[in-house]
Design brief:
The protein is α/β, with parallel strands linked by helices. The protein has helices at 2-13, 21-47, 108-121, 138-150, 163-167; strands at 73-77, 81-86, 89-95, 97-98, 104-105, 127-132, 155-158.
């Protein structure tokens, strides 16, 4: 019986080599996969256009019932100015200052004032649509969305301008 216990103690005294394969598998496969899933899910949620009635897509309510004609408030971000619209009426056209580098500096405080006035006129509307044109930087888009939320537009949707918005 003494031989068995001495074998156990000698095994305990010997250092076991660390098996790093499971940890390496975790870092090499699982974590990047989770990051990719998170990013793609975030982009998918951004691309959804959920309107005020809760339907997804182009505004069809899918229920077959009557749909109220709600005034659509939009902030269109052009390369060189902001445009605030209430329905088809342009209520503010806020020019940006051109810098020496050729880029533009937008007047965010003027956008804030324009949206504040819009909020005063339409206190029952909480949905706003932000539409940037292609050359608009991501930072400009995010700041415009933040200003919309600051002015109590709780549902900010992100759309691309269509030919209809450009022609008006």
């Amino acid at each position: 019986s003494r031989g068995v216990s001495s074998k156990r103690t000698s095994k305990l005294r010997e250092q076991q080599p660390l098996d790093l394969v499971p940890i390496m598998n975790l870092f090499v496969t699982v974590i990047p996969m989770l990051l990719v899933i998170t990013v793609s899910l975030h982009l998918a949620l951004l691309s959804l256009n959920i309107d005020a009635s809760g339907s997804i897509g182009n505004g069809d309510n899918g229920g077959g019932g009557e749909v109220e004609d709600v005034l659509k408030i939009q902030v269109i971000i052009h390369e060189d100015h902001f445009e605030v619209r209430e329905g088809t009426d342009v209520t503010a056209n806020i020019a940006a200052t051109e810098l020496e580098s050729g880029r533009f500096r937008f007047d965010y405080s003027a956008l804030d004032r324009a949206l504040s006035e819009t909020r005063e006129r339409h206190q029952d509307i909480f949905v706003i649509s932000v539409m940037p044109f292609d050359p608009v930087l991501y930072d400009t888009l995010l700041r415009a969305i933040d200003i919309c939320k600051h002015n109590q537009f709780l549902e900010v949707s992100y759309d691309l301008p269509t030919l209809y918005e450009v022609a008006i």
